[in-house]
Every structure is written in C-alpha cells, then in structure tokens.
C-alpha cells in the first residue's frame, strides 16, 4: 500500500478518494464499513462559513459537494437579506442516500481498497521517525508509505447519558483505545474535548398543528459546479419552541445535579457555538423560550432530528423534556441524545500540509485535530490526502492561504493558534470576508485546483472564462467615466431590487434568459444588460455574468484596498529572520516574546504572524528592525 | 525618511550613545546625557563623587576627570538612572556641567574617547520607544510642552500627557469591539434574531463619538490657526475713559489718567490673559475730528490709531453717555471697511441719570464701580474662543497625523452609522471597523511602521 487512511468519516472519505484518484494504492481501514459517511449529529451540510468550505472542497476536487447535492432534501441560502459576501448555502441531507452515494464513489475507485478492521498500532522504521506499517486488531500488518489518521471522536471516546458512562466513538460503536497510547509514545501532546448531539424522534408522534413550517428554497441551490441529473423530492422543516414548563424542568433537574455537564461528571471543554440545552438555560437564564428545529433525517424514514436540543441528560429525563415542548407532547424518542468526550491531538504539532512535525509521512485530519463539523473535517481530509500523495510523489505540496480561502484560514488558525475549544469555522474568523465569497470561488481557486489535477469538469473552464469576463466588465465600467458615474449610484440599488430567484439561479450557474431577468428587475437593469450585450457581444444566456459584475462593482472599492493590504502583508511576511537573532535576545524584544520566538524558530516573519504569545507590537518592531538585514 | 533610516541603520544595542541635551550656547548649565550598555562603566571611569559612593537617582556632586590625562574637566553634578528607571530603559547618566563651550567640548571629547558614540537626533527617544518605555501618543505631546507659545496649548498638552487622549482612544476601541461582536453574531448566527434595541444603542454611541470627534477636530483646527495673541483696539473721544477701562481690566494702574483730554499720546500696549487667551489691548490717543485737533502730536496719534485698525482683531468703541458715537466718521468707516468686529461701550455709566433708557446694543461700564466689566470680559472671551470650546473642556490635537487619523475615523463611523440605519451592508461595516481599529493603533503606537516613526522622530533634535 502507498497510503493507509484510518477512519471512514468525512475526513477519511476525502483523503481516500483524493489519494486513490491521484493514482496511489490506497487502503481505507474502518471499524464499521456500514457507517462510512454517517452524519453523527444534525443531518445537514453547509451553513454560514461551512457552505463556503464545501464549495472550496468541490472546486479543488473533493467529493462532499456532489454527495450533498445528490442527497439534498431541503436546500436554502442563508443571509440572503445581507450582502453577497455572507451568502451561504445549506442543505438538509437524506443520510441513507448520502452514505450510499459515498460508498459507491469509494467503490468506483480502482486504486482504493476498503477493509473492516481496527488499527491498534502505527509502526515506524527502525531508528528513524518515518512510518512503515500499521498493525490491526486481528494481527494483520500492512506496510505503507504514509498514514492519514482520521479517527474523529473515536480515540478513547466516552459517551455520557445521564449517570451512564459508556465507552464508544458513536452511540453503539466501539471506541479506539489503543491508538492514543501509541501517539503518546511518539511524543504527541494530546488533550480532551467534548461534543454533543440531540435526540431523534418519531415523526408520526408529532402534533403538527401548532408548528411553524419552513419550506425549502426554490430553485434548489447546490454546492457543486457539476450538474445534478435530478433532485430528490424536497421536504419542509418545522419550527417549534420550548415552553416555560421545559425551562422549569431543566432548572430543577440541573439543580438536583442530574446533568453530567453541570454536576462535575464532564469536565472537558465543548464547542461554544453549539451549546447544549443545559448550557442555554444556565448561561442565558433570562431567555425562557428556545427555538427547536425539526429536521427530516431521511426521505423514507420517520425520523426527525431535533436541532437545538443537544443534551447529556438520562433517557428518562430526555423523554420528559421532549414532552414539554410544543407539538411534541406525545413524541416518541427513537435515538437518545448524548454527550461524548474524546481525545484529540493539539494541532500546533502539525505543518500546514497536515503532516505531523514529529513523525514523517504521518498525517492527521478531521476532528482528531480539535475541529468540529463535517465540512471542517472533510477539507482537512482532502488536503491531507493530496499532500500525502504529493509527498510520496516528490511534488510540491498543496498550501492554501488566509487570503484566498476559508480552508486556508481554518488550517492557519489550527496550526498557529491551536484550539481552546472545538474549532468551528465562522465568517468572523476571516479578515478578508469581502474577497472570500461563494460567488468568486472559481477565480480564487482556479489555479490551485489546476495544480492539484483532480478537477475535470468541462464547465469549469468556461466558468473561469465567465469570471474573467465579469472582471473585464468591471474595468470597462470603471474606465468609462460617464457611464461609471451613472452606474455607480444605481448599482447598489439594483442589487437589492433583483429578485431572489435570479440570485439563486446565478449561484447555481443555471441558465436563465436575459430577457426574463430584465422583465422582473426593472428598467435600469435592462439598460445595463443591453450595454453588456452590445459591448461584450454576450450570449443572451450568459446571465450569471450580470450578477458577478454587479457584485464586483459593489465591492470594487473595498476589494481594492483589501488587496493592497494583502500585498503589503505578504511582502512583510517574507522578511527573513536571521539566525543571529536566536543567539542573544535583542533589547527590543521582551523575554516572554523571545522565549516563544525560540520555541517556534521561524524562518520568516510570516511564520509568526498569527502565533499566540507573539504580540502584534513585537512583530511590528521586529519588522522595522529587520528591514536593514533584508536590503 | 532619512532620520529614521539613519537611526535604524546605525542602531546597535551594544553602543553607548552620548549627546548634549541643552542648547549649544553660553549658559549657566549644560546637560550631557549618556545612555547604553557601558554607561555605568564609563561613568565610574570619569566621574569621581566628592564623598561616598554614588547612589542611583541621587544628584551627586563630584569631579569630571579624564583617566587618560588626569586633567580635571569640570566640577559637576551627576545623576545616574539605572535601566529600570531611566528615560531610555537602559542605564542612563546625566552630567550637569557649567555651561561653557569649552567645557562642553572637552566633556564630549572625553566621552567619545571612552567609547561613546555621538547619538543621532532622536535616538534617545527611539531607544525609549524600542524598550517599550513610552506611549507614542503621549510622547508627541511632551514635545508640545517644550514648544508651546500659548497657554492653551500647554494646558492641552498636560491633559493629553495625563492620559485623556489615550482614554478616549480606549473608549473608541471598545465601541469598535462591541459593534464588531454584534455584527459577527448577526452574520454568523442569523437565527438568533438580535434585538433592535442593541442596534439603536449602538447607533447612539456611534453618534456621540462622531460629535465628540467633530468637537476635537474643530478645536484643533482653530488652534492651528490660532494666534499668539489677539489685538484689541480701544478707540474713543478724548477723555472718554479708555485708559481707565484698561486699568480696570488689568487690575492696576498702567496707563496714566488725567482729566485733560489728550493725555495718552502714544499707543500703549497691554497684555492680559483671559481664559488662557492672550489679548493685547491697544490704548490709543483720544480721537476727535481732525478739524478739532490742536497739536501735531495729536494728529499723529490719530494717524497711528488709523493704522492700528488694520491690524486689530477687535475694536472697542468707547462713547460718552451724553453724546452719540462721536468718533470721527472716517474712523468708523475704516472699521466697517476692514470688516473688523466691534463693540460699543458706554463708559462712566455710574454717572448716568436715573431713568436713562438703556440701549441694549451697548455695554454699559463704569471703571469706578466695576459695573459691566465682567460682561465685557465675557464678551472678549467669547469672541476669541472657538465655538466648540464653549461647551466642553476636551483636549485637542496639535499633530497633523493625529488629525488625519481622527478624520478617517470619523468618516468611517459616519459610513457605519448610515449602513446601520439602512439596515444593510453588514459585511461592509466590518471593513470600516477594521480600518478604524488600525487608525487607533497608529496613534497609540500599537501598530508602527517606518512612516509613523519617521514623522515623529524627524522633529527631535540631538540629545532627545
């Protein structure tokens, strides 16, 4: 084997597909083949920041986008009332169909083998810190050149269900208890986090009379650039809320010490942005009512996932709690919610390629690095898979940056800042939100994608052409002064008046006649379209250029100054730090900063820009003083 | 750019620098400063305290003596600051010498022979900055203290040096953080339905910051154009009480008062300070119509008065209660022609008959009973104070780069306010917030680049 991928979760899937599609002999080894691609928590893909990640995975050549489109049963674009920079796509997913699709994709790859087994040991070369082989529970030893560990929440996983403490990586799946010892021996520093999930109830036991219905968006939004042959039937979601009774019950039960999250049973840190219902009661006591979303789990099953009700209470208490919720008075729980503690690796021990700093050709990806969420795991798996391949083939690695992708931000944050709680991607983590939009993904990552060589869409090239065209339109308008003045004022107004259907069709790259748009969107846009058709000899179907060019125009001023800032930052990042700096502490660097500097041993300023412990002032002063060495 | 480049390029933390801190002229005292690694060693070599061992921070009398030639250079006082407590953050030593050019020269030569290097202009302060000893925003206003010609500027500098500017910047930064958090929640968690109340409160805070910045900027511009003093001309008929009025304003007898018309022949200038504003009051000869003038001296006095009108900032026209405005029409015309602001003052109003109808266009004064004097003073203060300073006692900015930053900040806040009120453009608001943050950092020195350093240090002279 060239590459062994441990774990069949979202990270493992992307890693295995990437390396096998690039031609290397890959082995995906997982404890339970039937749970490959399982959605352990809520049955949806995408969301704020996450939608952007999925689209990036898709354009770079990963599979999640297509899998999500294939299994989408309720699609939505969030933040539509705000500007294009924060539009995010989100889909509810049929979890069975998703798993089927993923398994089919894996089976289609000729270089990929799947085995159901458990890895208990990673074996290194004698006297060298390079991986050599893995050893499984049934004493199988498989040689390999690189290993990608994607064990998610399975390392020493401990499930809390009220007083009960069960070992497991997911409910009713066993945990991995040997591998973490192995990692400790190698010198990795590990820590523990916790996360939680909500109960699933039987749809047939719900009283829909008082529930608010949430319809999916039409036309359907998709993540992938590739086309979908047909969509699954779309199902609605429902919204309900907890009642005063729920509040009183929870208050009482937590007070009596029945919640493991608050009676000392669980001491680890959980994700701040996905609080359990107990967290919500304790941290926001003034808020007596909380919204709960009922999300369909599958087309054909009767399971509803209760979003917003993550909990660690005992089964009896969960049942009681559910029944205090409006509409769920007779609801029957099919699967209980629970909290799970697990071991993870502190990600500052990795390189930006996801390879570990201590053992060569050993890669970590996914929740094992302290992240939370399917999308965050998938992108890490993809990058690890590509980089493991590139490393073995002796080629340049895939590196993403903060200024061209959310994936770049995710990795940069993990590697440099570490994690104090499970890391979830948010748009506020991006300094350059305005240039990291869902609509400009092609221009951002086209070149990178080509370098990887996994993306083979025909549509891809023509889309790149379209983006270039939109860019040229922007330049044209900026240079034709009179028109620019008139346009500038109206362009912002126009963007607000264009109807929603048009937006969505544009994001989906589907074709709508220009004439149809101009009818609905007012006189001015008609003029604009005429101008475009005349000057650029546009095909009347190239309507998505309009949206792109309008968005570009709206943001052009800001983008210009952002790009300037990016350029300056990138330039100063390349400043070399001379070795002489490490032999003696210069007076202008404080002791704490100097200690951190020696610990990191950076080669350029860029290496320490986001490091904890090195203050921005210190970096500034260092930059100024180093400029004499870099002349 | 040259200054800062010189300093940076020549910077070597192993160097000990020296410079003359006082002006290079004959004077009572001169101070030479030495700072750096070898400061202590050098001091031990060349300074012999009169008695005991020198303690840090204690002014010590002793002899400056060359260890090479055994020659005594001067009888001096030396103060040694150890590196925790010095201006530069390194060991620093001050030699207080007699202010003779030769002594200074000899002392500097001695220091250089002992291994010191002559400091670049501004290098001491640069080291102070590198060692984290000074807050940029305050250091520049210390400069004002040295250079101010105006009481108001000194008062302002004190305010800033004691932290008022920094506090305001901290307040602004807090508002930026609050707004930023609000925005991030609204974007990243749209299902949370952020309260409109928070929105309104934020808009309120932003409005008040915009107003405060406008106040500060207006005052700053005013003081940029502010004069060192304001010329206030006093004209009136002979013996109407001009000199008395001035004496009353300043509180003692400067002008000679007689009952004979035509006592004041020359222009007498008196300086008073009202509310930190310097006012130069110009007392003139009494003016009658030229045809009534008896002597040439009187005529000359009138001519001088006419000249003064051109250069005055304000004219006080004094009249006598029994007659109308009786300064010559040509003087009055001149005042109007030069568009000079003026005020009509009825003097000796203690002599007005009971039942006199008071004209509200005049100020009624009496130098004997002090009636109306306060009112007059208030009028002068009002005339010469910028509008904003009427309302509050906030600081203002004398540095161009600070004014520029404040302008940018205000521009951004205005944009943010509009976007908030229109309820759109959340993602663009964060762009403006980031810009505001970076401008604030530029002022406090949290973010520095060569340009900023250069603009600061270019003004410093040797020895600072």
Highlighted features:
heterodimer, A: 631 residues, alpha+beta, Elongation Factor Tu (Ef-tu), domain 3, DNA polymerase, domain 1, five-stranded parallel beta sheet, 20 helices, 21 strands, B: 464 residues, alpha/beta, Gyrase A, domain 2, Four Helix Bundle (Hemerythrin (Met), subunit A), Rossmann fold, 3 domains, seven-stranded mixed beta sheet, six-stranded mixed beta sheet, 13 strands
Low-confidence stretches of chain B: 258-262
Question: Which chains share the greatest interface?
Answer: A-B, 34 and 31 residues
Q: Please summarize the sheet with the most strands of chain B.
A: 7 strands, mixed
Structural class of chain B: alpha/beta
Quaternary status of these chains?
heterodimer
Portion in helices of chain B: 40-55%
CATH class call of the domain at 200-337 in chain A: Mainly Beta
Query: How widely separated are the two ends of chain A?
Result: 49 Å
The N- to C-terminal Cα distance of chain B equals 18 Å
Please give the largest β-sheet of chain A: 6 strands, antiparallel
Q: What would the CATH topology of the domain at 200-337 in chain A be? A: Elongation Factor Tu (Ef-tu), domain 3
- Please give the domain count of chain B: 3
Strand order of the largest sheet of chain A: 15-16-17-18-14-19
Q: What's the quick description here?
A:
The complex is a heterodimer of chains A (631) and B (464). Chain A is α+β, with helices and mostly antiparallel strands and 631 residues long.
Detailed description of the structure:
The complex is a heterodimer of chains A (about 625) and B (about 475). Chain A contains 20 helices and 21 strands. Chain A has about 625 residues and is α+β, with helices and mostly antiparallel strands. Among the domains of chain A are: about 200-335, Elongation Factor Tu (Ef-tu), domain 3, CATH 2.40.30; about 460-560, no CATH class; about 575-630, DNA polymerase, domain 1 (Orthogonal Bundle), CATH 1.10.150. In chain A, a hairpin with a 4-residue loop joins strand 8 and strand 9 (about 140-145). The model of chain A has no long low-confidence stretch (mean pLDDT about 85). Helices cover about 45% and strands about 15% of the residues of chain B. Chain B is built from 15 helices and 13 strands. Chain B has helices at about 1-10, 40-45, 100-115, 125-130, 135-145, 150-160, 165-190, 195-225, 240-250, 295-310, 330-335, 375-385, 400-420, 425-445, 450-455; strands spanning about 15-20, 25-35, 45-50, 60-65, 70-80, 90-100, 115-120, 230-235, 270-275, 275-285, 315-320, 340-345, 360-365. The longest helix of chain B is centred in the middle third of the chain and has 30 residues, at about 195-225.
